[in-house]
Amino acid sequence: MRVDVVTIFPEVFPGPLAVGVLGRARERGILDLRVWDLRDFTADRHRSVDDIPYGGGAGMVMKPEPFVLAVEAIRAADPGAPPAVLLTSPQGRLLTQAQARALAVRPHLVVLCGRYEGVDERVAELLGAEEISIGDYVLPGGEVAAMVLIEAVGRLLPGAVGDAESVARDSFSGDLLDYPQYTRPAEFRGRAVPEVLLSGHHDAIRRWRAREALRRTLLRRPEMIDEARLDDEAREILRQLRQGSA
Ligand code: ADE
């Protein structure tokens, strides 16, 4: 996959995308990350990327021309299938695991990093850009949001994660919170690892994990339960948890 990022702070990239799973994906050529300085697509002496809002109000709005010129340059340099253009914004659709999976099959993404109080509406209109939010809070800029998006998508690319099971588990991830995990030592500061995990009884372990994942989700993210794809066993565990009998 190719990913082009357009930002006024190109120096903050690759940042965390240089290490771990994403760093290795880039070394192996699974992910081709390119970073563009938005100011290189300005025409004035001051290399301005923002201006005052029409209609008044506080703050500055990012100008449309540099973003549009940047995306045109990126498209011209890669005349293949048109890329999916994304714009980081607190007004965007919330990034989910399902959306990360949908983006991971695209060969080419362009991520535009918003800043200041907003981006001229015509950027999204003219480029057919989809606005993406990483959560219901406001960041000063979209660079960290772009990194979050690229990490979420990049780890799903075939070959990015070595452990096949951890990728396989992804097919259901996002439906429920994960179950609690433990590693050695079996006891630490008086706290023992749940007995069942040491039992070697695979079916009992699987059931314990299903119950704990459901318990956590019910407690911390009850709204996720309504959307989750649950099998008969999970539905029965859920019924018991709701009755307080599990
Ligand atoms: N820019 C500012 N806040 C953001 C958010 N929550 N998600 C994506 N981009 C943003």
UniProtKB/TrEMBL annotation:
InterPro entries linked: Alpha/beta_knot_MTases, tRNA_m1G_MeTrfase_C_sf, tRNA_m1G_MeTrfase_TrmD, tRNA_m1G_MTases_N, tRNA_MeTrfase_TRMD/TRM10
Keywords in UniProt for this one?
A: Cytoplasm, Methyltransferase, S-adenosyl-L-methionine, Transferase, tRNA processing
Question: Could you identify this protein by its name?
Answer: tRNA (guanine-N(1)-)-methyltransferase
Catalyzed chemical reaction(s): guanosine(37) in tRNA + S-adenosyl-L-methionine = N(1)-methylguanosine(37) in tRNA + S-adenosyl-L-homocysteine + H(+)
Q: Which gene encodes it?
A: trmD
Protein's GO biological process? tRNA N1-guanine methylation
* Gene Ontology MF terms: tRNA (guanine(37)-N1)-methyltransferase activity
List, alphabetically, the NCBIfam families matched: PRK00026.1 (NF000648), trmD (TIGR00088)
Keyword Methyltransferase carried by entry = yes
The tRNA methyltransferase TRMD/TRM10-type domain, residue ranges: 1-226
- Biological classification of the source: Bacteria, Bacillati, Candidatus Sysuimicrobiota, Candidatus Sysuimicrobiia, Candidatus Sysuimicrobiales
Q: How does the annotation summarize its subunit structure?
A: Homodimer.
Report the protein's function: Specifically methylates guanosine-37 in various tRNAs.
What PANTHER family does the annotation carry?
Answer: TRNA (GUANINE-N(1)-)-METHYLTRANSFERASE (PTHR46417:SF1)
Subcellular location per UniProt equals:
Cytoplasm
Similarity field: Belongs to the RNA methyltransferase TrmD family.
Q: Which CDD domains match?
A: TrmD-like (cd18080)
Instruction: Output the HAMAP family linked to this UniProt entry.
Output: TrmD
Binding of S-adenosyl-L-methionine, residues: G114, I134, G135, D136, Y137, V138, L139
Gene3D superfamilies reported for this sequence? 3.40.1280.10, tRNA(m1g37)methyltransferase, domain 2
Q: Name one GO cellular component term.
A: cytosol
